[in-house]
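Cross-check.
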Amino acid sequence: MKKINKYLLAFLTITTLSLSACNNQAKEAPKEETKVEEKSETPETTSVKITIYDKVNDKEILTEDAEITKDGLEKYLEEKHQAKFENGMMTELEGISQDKDKNQYWMYYVNDQMAEVGIGDYEVKEGDKIEFRFEQM
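Predicted model, tokenized:
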């Protein structure tokens, strides 16, 4: 009977140690990390409507749906509409230059309100209606 008890005790000890080892391995096994593809918080382009209007000569030059990239409105105007800037102010657009002697300047409006910041600082928002007006002051 002593031999049986010895074998039984040895069997129970080995079984307990084996089960404990398996349990520890399961706990220690690193969890697989699932990579979540990061989506950009901001889209690549922003859709706006642009109107260019010569109020001095009462003439609409163009209206277009535009896609503004992260480079901004100023860059878009330079590339697409021959805009020129001096000290942050637009001095020419579509070949029409401001004339200080006649007090004629380019102004811009966002959603029917005069913009509060320069073109280079304005961050376009989806659906903005942006109007550039050549005006007599």
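The longest helix spans residues 2-28. The chain is about 25% helix and 35% strand. Passed to J.P. for a second look.
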